[in-house]
Every structure is written in C-alpha cells, then in structure tokens.
Amino acid sequence: MTDAPLKLFNSLTRELETFTPIHDGEARVYTCGPTVYNYQHVGNMRAYIFADTLGRTLSHKGLKLSHVINITDVGHLTSDADEGDDKMEKAAAAEGKSAWDIARYYQEVFEADLDRLNVRKPAHPRATDYVESMIEWGKAMQDKHCYELDSGLYFDISTVPDYGRLARAVTEEGEARIDAVDGKRNAADFAIWRKTPAGETRQMEWDSPWGKGAPGWHLECSVMSAELLGHPFDIHTGGIDHREIHHPNEIAQNQAHNCSSDSAAKIWMHNNFLIDRRGKMSKSTGDFLVLQTLVDRGFHPLAYRMMCLQAHYRSELEFSWEGLMAALTRLKRMVMLVERLADAPVGGAIDHPKFAPVLEKFEAAISDDLNTAIALTALEDALATKKVDAAIKRAVVEHMDGVLGLNLFDLTRTDLRLRPKDAQMTEAEIEDAIVRRKAARADKDFATSDAIRDELAAKGVDLMDGDPLGWEWKLS
Ligand code: AMP
Ligand code: ZN
User: Fold this and answer.
1) Within 6 Å (CB) of ligand 1, which residues are found?
2) From the CA of 72, how far away is ligand 1's center (Å)?
3) What is the H or E stretch that residue 223 is in?
4) Of 7-11, 112-116, 361-365, 462-466, minimum mean pLDDT range
5) What confidence tens digit (pLDDT) does each residue in 141-167 have?
6) Distances (CA, A) of 288 to 68, 99, 204, 436, 467
C-alpha cells in the first residue's frame, strides 16, 4: 500500500522526481522559518502546513523524519535586501521592548499557531545560537568568494557556477528586492556580514573579523542546515518568493563553503502564495490576516488547514471568508461521520478488499507531488463506505488522517461551531434553551417555543430546524 513511489516537484529541475533518500530509511528536511519581529500571517502559515504535509507523507512512507524549521531571530532588514532598518530593532523601538523580548514573544505565538494547525513539532533552532558558526563560514568563504566594503562583507556571485539557476528568470518582485549598495561588484551580490555603522550600537550585534555587526540573512539557513542535517540533505522547502533570492543565495554559499558545484539539498520545493483580492498576502502592507483573526470570527483553526489542503501547494490559493466557511462545512461533515466510529476498536487492520480501491486512490494522490485535494476525496470515499466493520473503517480513516493532519478523531461538533469572540451566550445557556424549546414543542406550546427562538435570535444564535447536518444552531 505504501509502495507507490513518491514523486515530488523539484524547483531546481522544474520536474517531478522520484524521491530516493540519501540515507537509507531516513528523510532530512529543512524549512525556512519565520522572522520573528511580527505575527505570521495566514499566508506564512500556508508554508508550514505544506511543509508539515510533506513531513507527514515522508513518515507515512516509513521514513524516519528529521525536520528543521529555523527561527530567524536576528533582525534582517526592512528592504529584505541589504539596506534599510533592522526589522527586529525597529519592532523593538515601536513596542518599547528589547529586540530579544520581541523575538521570544513572536516565536511563542508562532509555535502556538503551529500547534493549533496540528503541525507536528519539528526542531526550532534559533539563528542567534549559530552566530559563531556563521562567522566560521564567513572566514572559510572570504578569500575566494567575498570582498569587504564599509558596510560589511559581501558575497561575489560570479565566483560560483551558474548562480541563480534555481530562480531561472528573476521576476520584477525579485529585482525589487535586490538593492544597490555602493561598491557592489554585481547587483545580486549579498551581505554575509553587516557591520554596525560607526558610532551606533545595536541590541543584537556580535564581534567578528569584519567588525561588530550581525550576519546577513541568507547565511543562517546554509549554516543551520549543514549543522543539523548534514550536507547534502534531502529536501529544502520555503515559499515561492524564496526561489528568487534567498534560496539561490543559500545555494551559492553552500557551493562556496563546500567547494562543490552541488546545491546541498537534493530537492528544493516551494509552495505558492496565499492571495486575496489585492494580491499576495504580505507583512509589508501592514494589513494582513493572522490565525487569531480567523478564530475571533468563530472559525476553528483546522478549517484553515482544510482550506489549504483543498488546493495543491503549487497553486495560488485565494483567501475568502466564503471559502473558509465552505472548508469548515466540509470538515464538519467529516467529523460527524467520524463520530460514528468513536466506539469502534482501535488497531484494526486496513487491508480489507472493500477499502483497497480508496487506499490505492489515496496513496496515488499523495505520492503524486502531495495531491491533497484528491487525497481528501479518497478520505471521504472511505467514510462513505457502507456495510463494513467499524474497526477497519476507523483504521483506514486514521491511516489517511495521519497524512492530512485534520485531527478528525479528536475534533467534536462543538469544537467546530462558529463561535465568534463577541458571542453573547455560552454553549451551556444555548443548549439549555434548546432543551426548553423542545419540551415546549412537545407540549404543542408554540408560543413559548417561538419566544425562545426569538430570544436566542436576539442574542445572535440562529436555530437551524431541519439542518441536514443536524447542527441545530449556529452563532450568526
Ligand atoms: P517570512 O517570515 O517573511 O520569512 O515568511 C515565512 C514563510 O512564508 C516563507 O517561506 C515565505 O516564503 C512564506 N510566505 C510569505 N508570504 C506568503 C504567502 N502570501 N503565501 C504563502 N507563503 C508565504
Ligand atoms: Zn532560509
């Protein structure tokens, strides 16, 4: 069953490739993590839901997974290139906290969000713990690949073979992120070390052979992937914007440091953007959605995971509240069917002829570059299979949900009720009113029954008599 070969789209070759691990029985994955100077928006979280789905699929294939998502707690620059203010220090000044406190706070929020989205816990090393190693890398690369300017140590991209082959064509967005620093040899050269300007002190700065300062933002991923996963390793992931600059720069550093033309990761994978009507969701606009906003509007976080899984990770996904509501409804339907399996014995065998076709469909889908949209329909087919042993059905559904991560056996209908932050009644009060109304109706006391309905409506609770989902009520 788990023997369909896993095919993944490699951005380096722009082709589907059959995944064969470098180390027998193991998969090593590195995912570029968040810069913790602000909240992660739901677009960022799409990148981690994708990385988690990849990790779960590799585990499902029987591989021992080592997965790293680094925490960028060194401030890089507001222009995302080599000039502008330090993001971490800027946020610290705005919030009246230290840069270190800012980083810890946003890391905690990020990790809590991962948890709410049922992302399994990978290792979360912090960049500030690897600065010594970054300096060592700088020293190893400087003679052959770098040059010094007043502002720092720069990497000369002409010193490595086919720089930018990952990006292929640099897009306008990519161009905009490359800045002009006086004295750079090539427009795309980038900082390995940024010197603290004379007369200034930064909260986050370290001594180095090039003076006090901080590492350039591309360096940490090369260093941390090498230290934690070894070079070469299997898969490197990130959002599609990283295909343009950050990942080509990581590759250049890997080549320079390892004295090799090899990019260090065998497969580079990129998720496409979450967009809204105005375009790519991004932090720089200042106006973005965080997971908590969805929760405040009453949505369970896993409705957002469902929304992401319904699209292929390489397609753009447009966020809309209607779309999120549709994803929630789909999740509710699944949970209701799973509730019927709650008492079924755990540990059933899945190899029953009745489930063979859906298991095959599921396996083919996820093995085809993580086609979660089709995998979800296989899960629904399994749930709809009639006249089968509940223990077997339960095992099949658990098997599939292990990859999709919807946490179906722990979710309840109550968890999935729309529950806006400003709701005026508690769940218990609503249930109590419903019991009273049912009793009134049983007594044919329709005046009381209507009065209870109106009373609930006034507090924003809609009763849904005859709701096909059997939900009874929702908060409007
Ligand atoms: P950042 O904290 O800006 O480095 O972003 C964290 C991750 O989110 C990176 O992998 C980005 O490529 C990814 N990302 C940023 N914006 C979006 C978006 N709108 N949709 C999907 N992924 C995104
Ligand atoms: Zn990175």
Assistant:
1) 32, 34-35, 43-44, 46-47, 238-239, 241-242, 271, 273-274, 280-282
2) 13
3) helix 219-229
4) 462-466
5) 999 999 999 999 999 999 998 898 888
6) 26, 22, 27, 43, 34
Q: Where are the alpha helices (DSSP H) in 79-182?
A: 87-95, 99-116, 131-145, 172-177
The answer for residues whose C-beta is within 8 angstroms of residue 105's C-beta and 6 or more apart is 36, 97
State pLDDT tens for residues 244-273. 999 999 999 999 999 999 999 999 999 999
Polymer length of the chain: 476
- What is the 426 CA–ligand 2 centroid distance (Å)? 44
172 band by pLDDT with thresholds 50, 70 and 90? low
The mean-pLDDT minimum among 96-110, 134-148, 165-179 falls in: 165-179
| Ligand number nearest to the C-alpha of 220 | 2
- Ion ligand 2: residues, CB within 5 A, are 32, 221
Ligand at minimal distance from the CA of 278 is 1
Mutate to test the pocket of ligand 1, among 41, 44, 78, 319 (most ligand atoms within 8 A of CB): 44
Q: Are 4 and 61 in contact (CB under 8 A)?
A: no
